[in-house]
């Protein structure tokens, strides 16, 4: 049924989503005798039954209710249960984290799915052996980094800030908060501390547009400047409010500046002007799109299959032949074709180009390395997967299997169509070439050259090795081990070839083969269009005008 293939398609071409996690704690245990605990959070992920540390937050000095600035980014796979563990430790700086049990302030376990579904999870922290860590709780907030998002790079400095320290100058740092619809504030970023300086220049930093303003340019942001105190009692210098829309005036040569205000001084002091100014020196927007953004924007995946008709396959009339048509059981060529094609046809207009190579073809029985298996040179397209299967079965009796195994002509043929597409400068069609072959290619040098050329075009190549030949040399084409180069030494622009021997999937379900060979495609599509800086063709219909759905 159609529904099943669509869901398979979405599962196997599931675009990798990244999720941002932010962590805060309340009522942590106080482990230090003289001052409060200095908490730090470790994020661990379960992999094959073992907990592995993924990342850790900064240490917040002397604070039992910390809000960590660290953003943890995790990959989210819809089809997997991904277990997470958060562990809070009292850090002593020198010995590292987690050295002693008495530094452990508590842990919490959950799954990525739970946090994504609930958006915000608050749970008690547990010590060893299931004991509650007093009233301690941990809150994790998740935001999916969606495609229409991208990130922004900001560079701030301040001038003439108020001096809060008696014997030296202030040690300022800046915090940016997003004000949500329920008036609550979400910490977006905390800069480093610049010591002893009333006109600090902070390091430039990147934040996703999602976390900065929920992708709404007019959402209010509160920016606060503090004088750092090692005991955790930071002195308030001043604040200002702005929006991402206002910040964007800092693009190019322009700068934007705000008065940094202390509301108490404004009331008390008659001639109060400000407690310094904060300047946005530079703002750069980097847009990031996902595979689904391109698909939803109308990009079609055009699918071409190329079948090896060389003599090494064996006489199709003989039951030992890889091309034998068994009425009860599809051969390996058909199995591989159907497994991969069924998923691609949901992203295409149901028409597939089908080519053959390595055979003598009518009427003159000359060898061809790129003939249409429907014998229509003007239109090599078949109606859906079923059309390809029928053309394949009817062409077998008409051709003579021959050789050699040359695939460069077919790669170049699809590349010519992809090159025409590229000239439109739109993300409207991406080409996948599925090559089914029973042996190692003969024209390796030409094939490498053709792949290097193709890596600059909107196309990907999947090679499935059919039968029991030794495919060791074919692994060279799959750039996973190293970078594929042309005979002259020119590297591919991007890794576009995926090679798999069909025998590894002989006993697995067809979806396993498809999942494996198509796993890289979403990434390859996004890499190509990002390199070209082509956005998706049309903004998504549910995007409000104020959002950042399409490039300005």
TrEMBL record:
SUPFAM superfamilies: C2 domain (Calcium/lipid-binding domain, CaLB), vWA-like. InterPro entries: C2_dom, C2_domain_sf, C2B_Copine, Copine, Copine_C, VWF_A, vWFA_dom_sf. Coiled coil: none annotated. One of its GO terms (cellular component) is plasma membrane. Gene3D superfamilies: C2 domain. Signal peptide: none annotated. The keyword RNA-binding does not apply. Residues 302-500 form the VWFA domain. The gene is Cpne7. Belongs to the copine family. GO terms for molecular function: calcium-dependent phospholipid binding. The keyword Repeat applies. Residues 1-125, 132-259 form the C2 domain. Keywords: Repeat. It comes from the Eukaryota. This is CPNE7 protein. Pfam families: C2, Copine. GO terms for biological process: cellular response to calcium ion.
């Amino acid at each position: 049924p159609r529904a099943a293939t669509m869901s398979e398609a979405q599962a196997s071409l599931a675009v990798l989503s990244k999720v941002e996690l932010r962590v805060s704690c309340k009522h942590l245990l106080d482990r230090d005798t003289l001052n409060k605990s200095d908490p730090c959070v470790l994020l661990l992920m379960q992999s094959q039954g073992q907990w592995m540390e993924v990342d850790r937050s900064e240490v917040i000095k002397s604070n039992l209710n910390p809000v960590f600035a660290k953003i943890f980014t995790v990959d989210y796979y819809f089809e997997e249960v991904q277990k997470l563990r958060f562990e809070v430790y009292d850090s002593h700086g020198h010995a590292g984290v987690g050295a002693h049990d008495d530094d452990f302030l508590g842990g919490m376990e959950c799954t990525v799915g739970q946090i994504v579904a609930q958006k915000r999870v608050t749970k008690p922290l547990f010590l060893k052996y299931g004991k509650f860590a007093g009233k301690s709780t941990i809150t994790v907030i998740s935001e999916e980094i969606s495609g229409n998002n991208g990130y922004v790079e900001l560079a701030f400095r301040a001038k003439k800030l108020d001096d809060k320290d008696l014997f030296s100058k202030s040690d300022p740092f800046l915090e940016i908060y997003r004000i949500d619809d329920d008036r609550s504030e979400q910490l977006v970023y905390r800069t480093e501390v610049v010591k002893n300086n009333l006109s600090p220049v902070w390091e430039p930093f990147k934040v996703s547009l999602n976390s900065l303003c929920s992708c709404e340019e007019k959402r209010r942001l509160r920016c606060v400047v503090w004088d750092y105190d090692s005991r955790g009692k930071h002195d308030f210098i001043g604040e200002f409010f702005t929006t991402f829309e206002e910040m964007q005036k800092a693009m190019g040569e322009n700068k934007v500046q705000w008065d940094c205000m202390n509301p108490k001084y404004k009331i008390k002091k008659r001639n109060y002007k400000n407690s310094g100014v904060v300047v946005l020196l530079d703002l750069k927007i980097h847009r990031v799109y996902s595979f689904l953004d391109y698909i939803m924007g109308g990009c079609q995946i055009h699918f071409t299959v190329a079948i090896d008709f060389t003599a090494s396959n064996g006489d199709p009339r003989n039951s030992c032949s890889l091309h034998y048509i068994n009425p009860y059981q599809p051969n390996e060529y058909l199995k591989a074709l159907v497994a991969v094609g069924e998923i691609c046809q949901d992203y295409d207009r149901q028409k597939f180009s089908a080519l053959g190579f390595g055979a003598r073809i009518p009427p003159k029985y000359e060898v061809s390395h790129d003939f249409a298996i429907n014998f229509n040179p003007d239109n090599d397209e078949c109606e859906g997967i079923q059309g390809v299967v029928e053309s394949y079965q009817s062409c077998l009796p008409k051709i003579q299997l021959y050789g050699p195994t040359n695939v460069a002509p077919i790669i170049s043929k699809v590349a010519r169509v992809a090159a025409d597409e590229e000239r439109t400068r739109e993300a409207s069609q991406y080409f996948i070439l599925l090559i089914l072959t029973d042996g190692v290619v003969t024209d390796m040098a030409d094939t490498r050259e053709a792949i290097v050329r193709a890596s600059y075009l909107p196309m990907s190549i999947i090679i499935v090795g059919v039968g029991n030949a030794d495919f060791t040399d074919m692994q060279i084409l799959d750039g996973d081990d190293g970078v594929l180069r042309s005979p002259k030494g020119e590297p591919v622009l991007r890794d576009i070839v995926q090679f798999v021997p069909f025998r590894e999937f002989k006993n697995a379900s067809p979806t396993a083969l498809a999942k494996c060979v198509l796993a890289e495609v979403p990434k390859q599509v996004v890499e190509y269009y990002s390199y070209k800086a082509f956005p998706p063709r049309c903004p998504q219909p549910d995007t409000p005008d104020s959002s950042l759905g399409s490039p300005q």
